[in-house]
Amino acid sequence: MSRATLGRVCLVLAFVLLLVLFALPPLSSMLLLIRSGELQFDYLLSAELGWIVMVAAPLLMIGAFLKGRSQGILATSLSLIALLLLFLLMMLRNPPYVLAIVLIVLYNLNLLALLVAAYRFLR
Questions:
Q1: Considering the entire predicted model, what is its pTM?
Q2: Are 111 and 22 in contact (CB under 8 A)?
Q3: Whole-angstrom Cα distance, residue 10 to residue 43?
Q4: Sequence-ordered list of residues with C-beta below 8 angstroms from that of 82, at least 6 positions apart, any chain
Q5: What's the CA gap between 74 and 57, in Å, rounded?
Q6: Which one, out of 16, 61, 63, 88, has a CA that is 20 to 30 A from the CA of 34?
Q7: Are 92 and 121 in contact (CB under 8 A)?
Q8: Residue ranges of the domains in the chain?
Q9: How many helices (H) and strands (E) does the chain have?
């Protein structure tokens, strides 16, 4: 298997994992809406499923570098920021609401940036 093919496989796996992670909170809230009649959005679900990011981030980095793209640095920095934010979200005990909201928003925006980067690397 060539480097480009292996890089593409890593990028496809990372893209699928990030897409699933990004789509799970709205999908679960829609299923809860259908089942119970109440709209309940679990905004922490993407942080609770952080193991998906811990698998997808290295796959994205490896795939970007194996394809020979110069965006490997971008993939590495975005992945490290996502892992750092995930670590901060898991380690904080009773943080102030403002800090918790900022960290959750930054984490979800970083997941979106990783998803867009994976899509752009595949093109």
A1: 0.83
A2: yes
A3: 28
A4: 53, 57, 107, 110, 111, 114
A5: 12
A6: 16
A7: no
A8: 3-122
A9: 5, 0
